[in-house]
Amino acid sequence: MSKVWNIKKYDEKKVEEIMNKYNVSKILAKLLISREIEDIDMYLNGNIDSLRDPFLIKDMEKLVKRVKKALDKKEKICIYGDYDVDGITSITIMYKFLEKLGADVSYYLPDRLVEGYGVNKEALYKIKEEGATFVITVDCGITAIEEVEYAKSIGLDICITDHHECGEEIPDCIGVINPKRKDDTFPFKMYAGVGVAFKVITALSKEFNLDKEEYLKYLDIVAIGTISDIVPLVDENRIISKFGLEMIKNTKNVGLKALLKVINYKEIDSTMVSFLIAPRINACRKTWKSFSCS
After folding, report:
1. pLDDT at residue 285 above 90?
2. Residue (of 181, 212, 188, 41) closest to 204 by Cα position
3. Cα–Cα nearest to 107, from 85, 134, 84, 86
4. Is residue 88 within 8 Å of residue 281, measured between CB atoms?
5. Where would you tag: which of 52, 160, 231, 261 has the fewest CB atoms within 10 A of its CB?
6. Burial tier of 150 (Cβ tally within 10 Å: 0-12, 13-18, 19+)
7. CA 58, CA 181: separation in Å to the nearest integer?
């Protein structure tokens, strides 16, 4: 039985336009069309300066304002995440950044086997009992309608940061940071949870007039979470991954250094992260502590 090859046909005029405009080969021009890359300039030439203003994301100002209030009043902040790589890396960068700002900050990772994914009322009660008055979720919370109402009833303020698909209703809380909200006009929607968390610490850096190094130094961890969550590596995700992978080579993170020592890898790329780093983090329930070391 002979094979029949169906060769995709391309609009040759469009191929020619891309070749001339971006000075690329015919093969690359066809690949860009095939992959339906909309912002070709961002895809080919994006850099750190191409990252968009985080305050363009809906409710970002509300979250920043609430964090400033917590810092001023020395409130205890709890970061609520998840046990997968995306959740662990999200907690890591949010925790470390708020700690550098001088916040009294803790974290909560639900037991995947006992509690399951996402926010639950028992955990919120425990967080409140331990003295927190403000909870920031990372990589979860967009469907926690009842849980947010419960939190409010016991005196816990909540801001949601998430990247999962939104339902018809979103939690009624201080702020819901998720570019996938139907009422959010932010042009890029496909972050991992850690990408959304990264935009939050970027906004906080800008609010406090910090040097951009104060948030860019976490790109190695952000890249790991982004690649591991299998989001499309286009637009800002591509920039995060590109520069983050470069940072991994000379990472200053103690936990990541330790992981790299035991991994038999040839080069640091997205395949190495996906198949060598990510499974090791997913397999360990307390990995976060290693990443949080300074």
Report:
1. no
2. 212
3. 134
4. yes
5. 261
6. middle
7. 8
* CB-facing half-sphere around the CA of 289: CA atoms within 13 A: 3
Note the pLDDT of residue 113. Answer: 75
Residue 156 pLDDT exceeds 80: yes
Q: Could you give the CA distance from residue 250 to residue 238 in angstroms, rounded to a whole number?
A: 19
What pTM does this model have? 0.92
Quick one: pLDDT at residue 5?
85
Q: Which CATH architecture has domain 54-291?
A: Alpha-Beta Complex (3.90)
Convert 59-98 to b/e letters by CB count within 10 Å (16 or more is b): bbeebbebbeebbeeebebbbbbbbbbbbbbbbbbbbbbb
Rounded to the nearest 10 degrees, the angle between the axes of helix 219-228 and helix 193-207 is: 150
pLDDT digits (tens, 9 = 90+) for 225-268: 999 999 999 999 999 999 999 999 999 999 899 999 999 899 99
Dig out the tokens for 237 from the structure: 């995700």
The residues of the chain that CATH labels 3.90.1640.30 are: 54-291
